[in-house]
Amino acid sequence: MADISAAPVGTGVALPPGGFIPLFTTFVHPSASQRVGAVLASTFLSEGKLVKEFEARLSAELGMLHPAALNSGTSALHLALEVAGVGPGDEVILSPQTFIASAITVVQVGAKPVFADIHYENGNIDPADIAHRITPRTKAIMAVHWGGYPCDMAEIHAIAKEHGLVVIEDAAHAPGATYRGQAIGSISDYTCFSFQAIKHLTTGDGGALCARDPEKAREVFRRRWFGIDRANSPVNEVGEREYDLTDVGFKYHLSDYAAALGLANLDGFAERMAARRALVEQYRTGLQAVPGLTHFVHAADRESAHWLFGFHVENRLEFIRALKSKGVAASVVHDGIDNNTLFGGKRPELTQQRRFDDTQIHIPLHDALTSEQAAYIVDVIRQGW
Ligand SMILES: *Cc1c(COP(=O)(O)O)cnc(C)c1O
After folding, report:
1. For residue 72, how far is its CA from the centre of ligand 1 (angstroms)?
2. Statement to judge: residues 256 and 365 lie in one domain
3. Which atom of ligand 1 lies at the shortest distance from residue 196's CA?
4. What's the 3-state SS for 368-381?
5. Containing structural domain, residue 37
6. Positive or negative, the Cα torsion across 224, 145, 94, 363?
7. CATH code of residue 292
8. Which ligand 1 atom sits closest to the C-alpha of 194?
9. What is the pTM of this model?
């Protein structure tokens, strides 16, 4: 994705308001440097009270259940699989329309990613393509909310219940999204969030893992720090923490200096989400009847977190070039990841994924995007490509 934020080459190009419009930006709240600076001055950098405060606010303000703050979204996926007991020989069903982190963590625990087809209309896993892929080795379904739009969770949970499977959500794009009135982060056995630099809410790098079951949540907190239950392992007189390691843990905790950035960025989160929604409305209305452009279809029973604004387009390469020449980024973001050799190579039978690969495109949507810029982008697209 290195070139998508690069300025257009050549001279004489009329730049849009504010200059070249990238696909993503990184949001850093104005109060962040003061808050992070205070942590640096305190010299207490590692996991402490700010991590706890960050987790409390994720819970109170975004509806996450038992969130454990971690050092990345990938760590969250890996730890979810570990705590769910997914291991060598097991299979996990997921959609290929995602970033490689979703499937690479499955391989990391020794299990096999099994790809199901997607809805061409929105890029999410198609529940109708899951059941016939279930084998005695299937352990979990991983639902990736592509671009922030929640998957068909009722259908996925019904299948999981029938076959005794664990449901893990990759909600890297979906903090603040809701499904039938319930917050993403409160619905499934495990939900994984990312606080990487270009995601909605950043801690630089970071993530969160929400386990619904309190017992599993306790295991998440223990195994994010080597497998040591910090709260219940007092340091004795000779200076040694008293614990007995019983299973493998990881060094996946978030640190206080990163939590300080996260806390600053949580301020105004709801307002920024509302601004995103307004931009999406502006795009939808402005691009309603553009020949060669087909909008994604979203159901009324769920609210997307709108990390991306995507649609299908004819003559995609010409579309990308036309936008780039006018100072606007456009990108597929990701093609179906099943095409990687590690995951077994491209599956022609995933016909909707292959169609999606050919026509999907995403245009700028981020916290720095102004409605003036969005109007410019609408104009550029309406002029044709
Ligand atoms: C960003 C992302 C991840 C990984 O998150 P990191 O915090 O970068 O480790 C996982 N899944 C999806 C779909 C992502 O977009």
Report:
1. 8
2. no
3. 7
4. CCCHHHHHHHHHHH
5. 32-266
6. negative
7. 3.90.1150.10
8. 7
9. 0.95
Rounded distance, CA 26 to CA 134, Å?
A: 39
The CATH number that applies at residue 51 is 3.40.640.10
Write down the pLDDT at residue 13: 52
Looking at the structure, tell me whether residues 244 and 322 fall in a common domain. no
Ligand 1 atom showing the smallest separation from residue 72 Cα: 7
**CA of 99 relative to ligand 1 center, distance in Å:** 7
For the stretch 348-375, pLDDT in tens is 999 999 999 999 999 999 999 999 999 9
Around ligand 1, the residues with Cβ closer than 6 Å are 72-74, 98-99, 101-102, 144, 170, 172-173, 194, 196, 205, 207
pLDDT at residue 10 is higher than 60: no
Q: Is the pLDDT of residue 188 over 50?
A: yes
Residue 15, pLDDT above cutoff 80: no
For 356-383, b/e burial (b = at least 16 CB within 10 A) is bbebbbbbbbbbebeeebbebbbebbee
- Ligand 1: which of 199, 200, 250, 335 to mutate, judged by most atoms within 8 Å of the beta carbon? 199
Q: Which helix (H) or strand (E) holds 192?
A: strand 190-194
Mutation to probe ligand 1, out of 23, 196, 250, 331 (largest number of atoms < 8 A from CB):
196
Tally of domains within the chain: 2
